[in-house]
Amino acid sequence: MSLSDPGEGQNLRTFAAKMVFISIILSVLVSCVVIAIAGFFNVLPLPLLEALVHSVIMAWIVGGIVTGVMCSVIGKAIRKLHASHAEFERLSKTDTLSGLANRRAFNQCFDEVENDASLAIFDLDRFKGINDNHGHAAGDIVIKRAAAAIEDVFGEFHCVARLGGEEFAVIVRGGKRKDRLILIELARIRVSCLTINFNGTQLQTTVSVGVADIEPSRSKHDTFASADKALYLAKASGRNCVCHEEELQLSQAVDQLKSTLLAAS
Length: 265
Prior knowledge:
Layout: H1 8-40, H2 48-92, H3 103-112, E1 117-124, H4 127-134, H5 136-154, E2 159-164, E3 167-173, H6 177-192, E4 196-198, E5 201-203, E6 207-214, H7 220-236, E7 242-244, H8 246-264
Parallel strand pairs: 6-7
Antiparallel strand pairs: 1-3, 1-6, 2-3, 4-5
Helix pairs in contact: 1-2, 4-5, 5-6
EC number: 2.7.7.65
Pfam family, one: GGDEF
GO molecular function, one term: diguanylate cyclase activity
């Protein structure tokens, strides 16, 4: 029986029902043999037919009650075990601080997506300053609030995960690229609008985002690397903005042009 498949419970109930009937039939057969032997030696307190009838009735009553109680107890124990297994699976894929999916769950989701999706990496701006100036308790609250804001924008359809520290990742599924970028931009705005009260101090944060499109023609590693480079470009562009991987080519072209002009001058 697989604890990860709730449908296996039906197989268990069918098996238990079969065992009930088999145990009762076996007890009836054993009783009949014993009664027949006792009748042969004239040691039965009742007539043979009446003893057989009583034996069959008692076998069904006692056997049915005993096996029914046992199946109920076992079934209840298995349901609890299944619930515990499901909770363990959930916790093993959940980041304890933010409540989002953790890196393990994110990697599984990432492996399942082939196209019509974008990878967005969110990184809180100047987060070290919050920890240094207000302590890690303040940093934890900021992470929780930022995670809630990002998750509120994307919902359950898209995979929202905390990769570690102040870094989050979202696999934005479906729609056109521009629609996915609008969602990502909305999440950035939601984070920048947060006002977090910590011990009488108003804390605010912003987030920089790097985006890369998920395509079957390239590896997950390359996709992640492109999104990471786009994130660095967002940080270098002043933070609190969204940069798509296509902007990397434009940035590189501008840098080359600057180098050419400087060399020519």
